[in-house]
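Morning. Coffee machine broken again, so started the prediction first thing and wrote up yesterday's gels while waiting. Chain of 358 residues, entered below exactly as on the submission form.
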Amino acid sequence: MSAILSPHDPLAAIDADDAPALPFTPRGPVSAAVLHHLSARAATNHTVLADAAVASSPDVETDDDLQVALFALYASAYGSIAAFDPELEWDPSLIATRGVIERAFEAALRARLPEPDLPAATADAVARALFALTAADTGPSLSRYLAKKATLDQAHEFLVHRTIYTLREADPHSWAIPRLTGRPKAALVEIQSDEYGGGTQGRMHAELFARAVRGAGLSDAYGAYVDDVPAVTLASHNAMSMFGLNRRLLGAIVGHLAAFEMTSSIPNRLYAEGLRRLGFGDDVCGYFDEHVEADAVHEQIAARDLAGSLAEDRPDLLPDILFGAAACLSVDGRVGEHLLDAWSRGASSLRADAEEVR
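Came back before lunch.
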């Protein structure tokens, strides 16, 4: 499905026959303008379009146009999509558009999440606060559903949603490494070393997941399923990218990683149980098995040595550490709610027009 261009559209001058193919489909004027700029150097006034879209959007987090545009802008920074010209990574107009969407996205998250009571800025107190925060997350359990009830089609859908982040697992949090010092930096490097397989390519978690999706008969090409997933799935990856790529949000990316690791071990055990129940083998389940033990260790490092030590060194970052953790639970929770709601209605959790998009 191609974007329909009117004579007054800023992209109307682009000849569809001459323009290179887009890596995924625009879902509105902002994503159309951003994707064409990144792919074809067809500069348009997408910042103005983004301003207008933000002003009229009832929910930035579930806005397909804005989340696709933001995902594409982050993909340019990661180098995820070969079709995006690397010369445009720091294009001032694209950075301005990213800033417009980021400010709205961050503001929406902050407005929706209650401000938690701040603990003392000590490693133990911060760790206790983070464990209490994650323990209080009592939303519907996607992992329990997958373990006991999911169908084979639903398991495939689950893996499709996971490709958006997990084929680049750990990369959003690695942006924080050069911005940390001392104990927090050492703790993050320890976690990330495991995420990247301790220097062994075949043990990298992203590689293990790529093997899993291949074993399930899916594509392991990054971005292959962007057209299939809704905005809320893109928002989950975009939130951590936003925290990681903005130095002023250092506390938020640290808090996000802490919550991410602290809510991983048990769900991954249940995911593996469910996938084996449906007949998948170790090539698919091995990725999830790996996280059962690894993340049980990582949660302690992330809570105390990373987040707690950062709060001791930088008490000014304590509010954002808690914000990042709460945002992780909230945004990922909305993804789980979306899947479970669709499946409870006997519907697909993927976009209804995904086949038409292709």
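The chain has two domains: 29-112, 123-357. Going to sketch it on the whiteboard this afternoon.
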